[in-house]
Amino acid sequence: MAEAALLDGKALATKLRTALASELARLRREARLAPGLAVVLVGDDPASQIYVRTKTRQCEEVGIKSFAHRLPADVRQEDLLTLIRGLNRDPRVHGILVQLPLPAAIDEAEVLAAVDPDKDVDGFHVVNAGRLFAGISGALVPCTPQGCLRLIKSRVPKLAGLKALVLGRSNIVGKPMAMLLLAEHCTVTMAHSHTFDLPGECRAADILVAAVGRPELVRGDWIKPGAIVIDVGINRLDNGGEKAKLLGDVAFEEARRVASAITPVPGGVGPMTVACLLRNTVIAACRANDLEEPAF
Ligand code: NDP
Questions:
Q1: 188 touches 152 (CB < 8 A)
Q2: Structure confidence at residue 240 (pLDDT)
Q3: Which of 83, 64, 68 is nearest to 25 (CA)?
Q4: Strand 95-98 versus strand 36-42 pairing type
């Protein structure tokens, strides 16, 4: 069998950002609208700092104003909530992102619930999760699964009837991913740490999305020949002082000999996640101003 095609998230994200940049220019010109994204970072987790830097830089590049708020790890819950309530009221801010994970002393659920659902560009608020679950229009869809779906559809535009397996059931990736695939009329199975016969479940899937956070858990012989494989996992392997090596949840070299298409790590899902965040911010800004949303 031929080697799998690479699903190039970097290239697809660049295409999406280019389309967003011209949409943003149009909004500025025709509606004098300058969408804004507030990013809240608590503590000094190195990976979170990199993510926040990437997000704010890409905002500026496409023409979204970014407002970064950096708070110490020992910030009081009430002070964090006060900041979020202020951002909810701020008309320059159309999207609010609270970078996760939050320090253990912070009640994450309370913080996410404090974000105005119309500004919840991460799509983590229960109102947006509920809309997605119920199939009601208007949900702001979580960025990582949104990016995964775009990658899948770049290869196979019509997914109806295909068997999809989502490995991992977190609120931020696995569950919304399953809902999106269900809405595309896939037959969806969700697998997790209690699943019997994980390899067997994977082998039945035409589309396999792995979001477990276990380096190379999914082996080549777990994959149905010709399947599409989306690897969400980002596992940092300490390289003894060298730059950390990134590994996905899928054994890439084995999998690419069996799958028809596969995302690399890095350069697959990661860039799409950020591009979809920018897209959600533009959508939130259009909705707040009763303007037509971008069609892409
Ligand atoms: P969570 O830790 O919240 O969830 C992991 C899921 O995997 C759980 O449902 C867990 O099952 C399941 N799981 C763990 N170990 C196994 C196992 N051995 N067999 C079967 N299932 C298992 O992770 P996230 O969803 O937040 O993230 C998953 C991965 O994706 C991480 O590597 C993360 O870094 C990455 N990620 C990447 C993003 C990107 O932009 N590329 C964005 C977000 C996340 P159970 O529920 O039973 O415990």
A1: no
A2: 75
A3: 64
A4: parallel
Q: Crossing angle of helices 143-155/269-288, nearest 10°?
A: 110
Q: What is the pTM of this model?
A: 0.98
The letter for the amino acid at 97 is L
Ligand 1: residue whose CA is nearest its atom 14: 212
Active site residues: 55, 99, 122
**Span 112-122, average pLDDT:** 98
Distance 170 CA to ligand 1 centre (A): 6
Domains of the chain listed by start with CATH number: 32-117 (3.40.50.10860), 143-270 (3.40.50.720)
pLDDT over threshold 80, residue 242? no
**142 near 123, Cβ under 8 Å?**
yes
Atom number, ligand 1, closest to the C-alpha of residue 269 = 41
Mutate to test the pocket of ligand 1, among 58, 232, 247, 273 (most ligand atoms within 8 A of CB): 232
Under 8 Å between Cβ of 111 and 80? yes
Residue 284: which residues within 8 A CB-CB, separation 6 or more?
A: 35, 94, 95, 118, 119, 121, 140
